[in-house]
């Protein structure tokens, strides 16, 4: 089956009028009742929304670029990842004083070597280092990726265009409790004299998950096809 | 108002939604349900690691407004002490049952878990939730037609009497799991120890994946202290923290017929109660 058309044609729900969906109704009803009962305030909701809208993968890329350039910083990143995160502007205790609750505050950085390649997954849900890497991509949350990566990692990596020789150990990190993990890939060849800013450009989110390797000239993720939202958030 | 024919159509649609073994009748007599099938029914549905599946096209997706708002609401409820993340993870990823787990969008389950926690903990009544949903529906009758999706609370409530957990007091300035540091006994295992994951009866909830149970691996990291998720997920204040370990397994040991390199490994986090010294 080919997908040459826009994304709407295979939707089960294609309303004649632009109707509010069941999920939208439920979300609004719950939010209103929470505010009326003082469970949380509109101001607290707004503050967390603003916090959530400014997270993304840039600090993680900068952290890796700096580690490539500075062996002392690399040692810090591995030994004290929360301290290293602060150096690139991410305080894992924000915005509540005990972190973003779903992400906890136990962070580990997995450094690749010439003989070990790391890749992360959460087979139980979608555990992901959100404060430093932003929200996980949709495919990372699919039962498909979660089912298969823990059992057939080389096949799944090949679907992202990553073919690793037998001489490299594939090390799958199933992140299923309170630790959050991110991959520190190795610096590619051909980027010897680059600045931190230049290096940051080629350290994509996919590289930090471990489904891609940084390459000179590649600054985008592997999966780029994007399903549009019916009623998108204002981001 | 629906017609009798429309109601019959919806019943037909529901009847086609299956999440049971097709070889057994509905509500089978006990002699037809063997141990393996009992275990399969009791397996927490979020535990999908290793289930057979074929390649699909991986796509990104833009956020619906309600998805973004749902994520924020879940986090704010944890921030304000209504639930622990571990309670949310059970309610949204497991308690929903297999049909909804596989049938709903990702954030649809998060949203259901909000309704579930607020009703179960007596913060809101299911009757008033249903009435408010009907009211919101009515507000948008005839379609969105350029109207923005907005919450319109009638007033801001006084939250001083709302029951909140003590986690939000203790964890501030420390984080989680750091708030539990120093509260477990000495770790039973050290880096390099060979350990076997216990196999034991299982009901309702765990975060120790089925695919490692019975397998032998090696302690890679002595990670942190925390209550076991099976207790933390019901917010038991008396649950004693224990050590969690990152355990390394050889893929060839985990998976029958593994075809990758012999050196390939998998690491995952397991609480101490699930581990025993390898024999």
Automatic annotation (TrEMBL), chain A:
Keywords: Hydrolase, Metal-binding. InterPro entries: CN_Hdrase_a/SCN_Hdrase_g_sf, CN_Hdrtase_a/SCN_Hdrlase_g, CN_Hdrtase_asu/SCN_Hdrlase_gsu, Thiocyan_Hydrolase_gsu. Residues 22-212 form the Nitrile hydratase alpha/Thiocyanate hydrolase gamma domain. One of its GO terms (molecular function) is thiocyanate hydrolase activity. Its EC number is 3.5.5.8. Belongs to the nitrile hydratase subunit alpha family. This is Thiocyanate hydrolase subunit gamma. It comes from Pseudonocardia charpentierae.
TrEMBL record, chain B:
InterPro entries: CN_hydtase_beta-like_N, CN_hydtase_beta_C, CN_hydtase_beta_dom_C, Elect_transpt_acc-like_dom_sf. Residues 42-145 form the Nitrile hydratase beta subunit-like N-terminal domain. Its EC number is 4.2.1.84. Keywords: Lyase. Pfam families: NHase_beta_C (PF02211), NHase_beta_N (PF21006). Gene3D superfamilies: 2.30.30.50, Nitrile hydratase, beta subunit. GO terms for molecular function: nitrile hydratase activity. Residues 184-276 form the Nitrile hydratase beta subunit domain. It catalyses: an aliphatic primary amide = an aliphatic nitrile + H2O. This is nitrile hydratase.
